[in-house]
Design a protein that fits this description.
The complex is a heterodimer of chains A (452) and B (375). With 452 residues, chain A is of the alpha/beta class. Chain A is built from 21 helices and eight strands. Chain A starts with a helix and ends with a helix. Chain B has 375 residues and is an alpha+beta fold. In chain B, helix 1 packs antiparallel against helix 2 and helix 6 packs antiparallel against helix 7. The chains are: A alpha/beta (452), B alpha+beta (375).
């Protein structure tokens, strides 16, 4: 999203001393810019007085430079109980507004009342890469023959990686091919809400019938299924009926069903009958492809170097990737500079999990040992004790992933003789990671410590 | 700027204001004290952006002006000067010259413009209370003991000032105990705010024997304390305070009285053995046949302790609590006799075990509530 206040702050930061900036502008927010009446949120009264008497002109100037009309500026104490309010409606000058409108057009909500599907999600706009090609292949097969090969289709992966996009696209494509099909897309939370609603009205049976007549059922965010035995049972029944009738069932979740504590074992088993497909974080090349596709879709011009810069600096998810791209494109329009020029002159900083500090092999070994409460020498020993062995393998894996060291070099770092042992260790952890979420969390924690 | 003032007065004022000029914040000028002279009124000002201390200094002669210099340095220099010599401070550019008898020094400061302006209390909308200084000091101390220092729950790190049925109460709780004190009876205005415990402690530190009354003004997100020559302005804590009256039930089935000093001694003895586990648990028991109240504690390595107080008991019961909380409570209750009360089992309306309630036998103004440990 186009965040005026962050850009304004970036500009103010260049004009005043760092100590002044970090003292007075930390924890400020832009509450409203309605018709030129600017309201800025601050921590407490001590800040209002100072900002008003010393920095009013600078704020007003910086806001104007970022396309915000300024008539007067008010300050308001931002209570913590109210979560930080982002500007609801930013009144920018006319040409930016037009630009905003044209880019926004594509995103106009086109949600269908009956199916819950949003037609903006199409398979064409889903960028295929090595991180998701399997899932997409399965999706295509489902579109051609719903209810046969991949049923149920279970899709999992972290937030912002495109789960919702992919399953909605499946729904939309099936609808296109079979206009008579009854399709329903619903987040699991809405499923509950509706179930409770029906039961309260004493129409539990109608609820069943409604779902049992479907041809395609898409359930999103399945991980939110929590301790609601009755509705879980209901879901299980509907699931079984539809499955027996060879109706397509599609379920997304941020992890595997067996990792969701509250899910009944039988249900967990059935959900992954036809296999589980995951969406992973895109690799550098995939990220570039996604950004390029998105820019082309918007008809925007952006240099390859700028795309590479964004791809390199956003390591979180696709959603963040796209939002950074939109910000830069809009900034480039406002300022009349190309994206690369903006990046080079420092007006734009991409900070999503910005580039990590370099680390060393020694540090990785040290942090892994410390995490598993071992002495680095123990880790490097020949011990075959299970926990030491796992720690050693994790160290190998991290050395490989984080430093791209050769297996021979890794072997000397962790005190094993043979590079094939290292290879085995790395592959073992890689495989385990796919299924073992505790391990995934542990490794994430260790990484945090390494780069801390 | 120029002032001439007695060493003792200057040293005291500087010591008082320099406490909060700690430089924990990123802005270097906040380590400084602002010395401001206007129409013969001299004020020394420091702030850490959560609160500000202003000390008005009586001087024998002065010339208008403002200057800001490192507060700690100036305070330490002045307090080491010989007593009862007049100290003369003159400023030129951003420096000050201090002269006292044979001693003199030059301290570098910063432009006074860099020093933040302080927020002001809106006098028209402010809610104002005046309290005798001794009452205020005792009451604040009585509740400060139970305030939390866990900044994950910001509300509990403050002292809650609230009015109910025309009474102004002070309340604090850390979730395990609660202290509640009547500060003013029969107030007209209504209020419900939370003052940071650290600010209140700063107010208490500024109190000296010459002061008689303290004025508290609350407006928007600020509170101002005026006491003698000192003015302290603090932000209020911006978080919902829990409804403590609902949280702790103070109706007890088992009630008895005890001599405060005797009970305190017994509690301290028991606490010596109450070091097993993290909770310093002691077990208190009432016995209606022998009319005894006993405290039992055990430390596996060292031994154990059983102490008994004889007092009239009407019902048998048992409760385990943290020894330190009992000692804190008794230390803060005034009067010779304390009344105690507790119930066994669980309060159905809150789902919590009944607490131990302590107060002065003669007055309900101060109550101290300690939650039991489940053992």
């Amino acid at each position: 999203m186009y965040n005026v206040w962050e850009n304004t702050l970036a500009e103010i930061e260049q004009k005043i001393s760092t100590s002044n900036f970090s003292t007075w502008f930390q924890d400020t927010s832009l509450i409203s810019t309605d018709k030129g009446h600017i309201i800025i949120g601050v921590k407490n009264s001590f800040f209002i007085k100072q900002l008003r008497s010393k920095f009013l002109n600078i704020i007003s100037e910086a806001l104007t430079n970022n396309g915000v009309k300024v008539k007067d500026i008010e300050f308001e104490i931002q209570t913590k109980s109210k979560s930080k309010i982002r500007p609801r409606e930013v009144t920018t000058s006319i040409d930016i507004k037009d630009r905003l409108a044209s880019t926004k057009k594509a995103f106009k909500s086109t949600k269908s009342q009956t199916t819950g599907l949003n037609s903006k999600y199409t398979l064409d706009s889903f960028v295929v890469g090595s991180n998701n090609d399997l899932a997409v292949a399965a999706a295509k097969s489902i579109i051609e023959h719903p209810g046969t090969s991949y049923n149920p289709f279970f899709l999992y992966g972290g937030s912002g990686l495109g789960k919702t996009h992919l399953v909605q696209a499946i729904g939309n494509e099936i609808q296109k091919n079979h206009p008579d099909f009854k399709i329903l897309y619903t987040p699991i939370s809405d499923f509950y809400a509706e179930f409770v609603d029906y039961v309260l009205k004493g129409k539990g049976k109608d609820f069943n019938n409604k779902f049992r007549s479907l041809d395609v059922l898409i359930i999103d965010d399945f991980q939110l299924i929590v301790n609601k035995e009755k509705s879980q049972e209901e879901f299980f029944n509907i699931f079984n009926t539809l499955h027996q009738l060879d109706k397509q069932i599609i379920v997304t979740s941020d992890r595997l069903p067996s990792q969701i504590k509250t899910v009944d074992e039988r249900l967990a088993n059935r959900l992954t009958w036809a296999g589980a497909f995951d969406l992973q974080l895109p690799k550098f090349e995939d990220k570039c492809a996604i950004l390029r596709a998105k820019a082309d879709l918007d008809g925007a011009e952006i240099e390859d170097e700028a795309i590479e810069y964004i791809a390199e600096n956003v390591n979180t998810n696709i959603r963040d990737l796209e939002s950074e791209l939109s910000t830069i494109l809009l900034m480039s329009d406002v300022r009349g500079l190309t994206p690369l020029e903006l990046i080079n002159n420092g007006s734009i900083k991409v900070t999503r999990n910005a580039k990590l500090k370099p680390t060393t092999a020694k540090r990785i070994v040290e942090k892994v040992s410390k995490y598993y409460q071992l002495n680095p020498n123990e880790l490097k020993s020949k011990s075959r004790v299970a926990n030491i062995k796992t720690a050693r393998q994790i160290a190998m894996y991290l050395l490989h992933e984080e430093l791209s060291m050769s297996t021979t070099k890794i072997a000397t770092e962790v005190g094993v003789k043979d590079h094939t042992t290292v290879l085995h260790g790395i592959n073992k952890i890689k495989n385990d990671l796919k299924l073992n979420f505790t391990l995934r969390d542990q490794i994430a924690e260790i990484k945090e410590k390494i780069y801390d | 700027m120029e002032i001439e003032v007695a060493q003792e007065k200057l040293a005291k004022a500087l010591n008082n204001v320099s406490r909060i000029a700690t430089g924990k914040v990123t802005l270097p000028v906040l380590n400084n004290v602002l010395i401001k002279v206007q129409d013969k009124k001299v004020s020394l000002i420091t702030t850490n952006l959560d609160m500000a201390t202003i000390d008005y200094l009586p001087v024998s002669s002065s010339k208008d002006g403002v200057v800001t210099v490192p507060a700690r340095l100036l305070a330490e220099f002045v307090s080491n000067l010989p007593k009862s010599t007049p100290v003369k401070i003159t400023s030129s550019d951003n420096k000050i010259n201090i002269a006292a008898g044979k001693y003199s020094s030059l301290i570098n400061g910063a432009p006074a413009d860099d020093f933040p302006e302080l927020p002001e209390i809106n006098e028209k909308s402010a809610v104002i209370f005046k309290v005798g200084i001794e009452d205020f000091k005792n009451s604040a101390n009585q509740v400060l003991v139970a305030a939390s220092n866990d900044f994950n729950r910001p509300a509990l790190t403050g002292i809650h000032f609230y009015t109910k049925n025309k009474i102004l109460y002070l309340v604090s709780t850390d979730g395990y105990r609660l202290a509640k004190k009547v500060l003013v009876k029969d107030v007209k205005s209504e209020i419900k705010v939370t003052v940071p415990a650290s600010s209140l402690q700063e107010v208490l530190r500024s109190i000296d024997d010459s002061m008689e009354e303290i004025e508290l003004s609350f407006a928007e997100d600020l509170v101002r304390f005026r006491l003698g020559e000192v003015e302290i302005i603090s932000k209020l804590i911006d978080a919902e305070y829990p409804d403590v009256d609902k949280l702790f039930s103070t109706n007890s089935e088992i009630n008895f009285e005890a001599d405060r000093d005797e009970l305190l001694r017994v509690a301290k003895l028991a606490s010596l053995f109450a070091r097993h586990g993290a909770n310093d648990a002691i077990t208190c028991e009432t016995n209606s046949e022998n009319n005894t109240f006993s405290i039992h504690s055990i430390a596996n390595e060292y031994g154990e302790n059983d102490s008994i107080i004889e007092t009239k008991i009407d019902k048998n019961g048992k409760i385990s609590i943290t020894s330190r909380y009992l000692i804190d409570a008794l230390n803060n209750i005034d009067g010779k006799k304390v009344s105690l009360g507790f119930s066994e089992g669980v309060d159905k309306s809150t789902g919590l075990a009944y607490p131990l309630v302590l107060k002065n036998q003669k007055s309900d103004d101060y109550i101290h509530v300690v939650m039991p440990l489940s053992i």
